[in-house]
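Annex B, item 7. Sequence and structure tokens for protein A, then protein B.
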Amino acid sequence: MTPPENNSALQETQVFEIAVPQRRTQSPRRPAPAPDRPRHLHAVPGRPAPGRRPPRPLLVVGAVVAASLVLALAAINVLVGQSGVNEADIQKAIDAKQQQMEMLRVDVLRLSAPARVHQRATQIGLIPAGALTYLAPAPAGAQKPATTTSGARKPATHTRPSTRTPGRGGR
């Protein structure tokens, strides 16, 4: 397809310009400068514009805060690492004490065996007990023991056995 040679529709269109007044947005803080006067004011070198603070103190405070956070995190990391080492040492000590306790428990069981107690008793000079006599309470209808004329009971004729063991110094 070829475009038509006579392009009369495009030639007839006209371009219209509409004049739109320019709106200036004015800040409520500062009025717009006068349009035709030359400006005779200028900023003092080395000082910030009015109403604006330099960012340097804010940057310094931010850097100090960031550095203190990094140091605090490093200190916490070191403390956590040390507590892990301490925990491992404590766990080793606990395991050693438990093993020692188990060995002592085995020794107690071995030394308190009846055969071992009998052997040790004969070594230190103890003799086996003779015939045992058991005392039983008298039945409810039995006679009372003999009393003296004053009504008091007779003193017992037997003595209590000694609680001292020979060879131990009375302990």
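Protein B:
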Amino acid sequence: MIKQLLLPFLFLAFSPIVQALSFQTPLEIHTQNHVHSFQVSIARTPQERYQGLRGYRGLMPYQGMLFLWPRKTRPNMEMLGVLFPLDILFLDDQGRILEVALNLQPLSSENFRPHQPISQVLELWGGTCAQLGIHVGNYVKWRP
């Protein structure tokens, strides 16, 4: 009985994190032959970057999360707490895709870190890059 009473409160405790994600920023990925349009949520603060997509149940098609840093860095990206597979794209200041980590498995303890400093990371549903032909050298464009 107590468990049944606590479950709604636990859900409410974590739901603001999930509900706070707003996929309203337009973003385009320019491949060799096509422009793919997405709607993304942006993580700018350390807290937003740490939270990322943790606890979120998934993404709709053509949604993602864009992580921004004020200066170039080599962030550790991890799948702990992420409940669905991801493709992670590491971007330079101009939005060029420098590295990709494809179809990362949910809840994995493995860390992914770019080989060179970057300023942006884009996370998409796992398998999106393969499906749409997105790879290193393509460009990501968005407006703040």
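Comment on protein B: Residues 1-19 have pLDDT under 50 and may be disordered.
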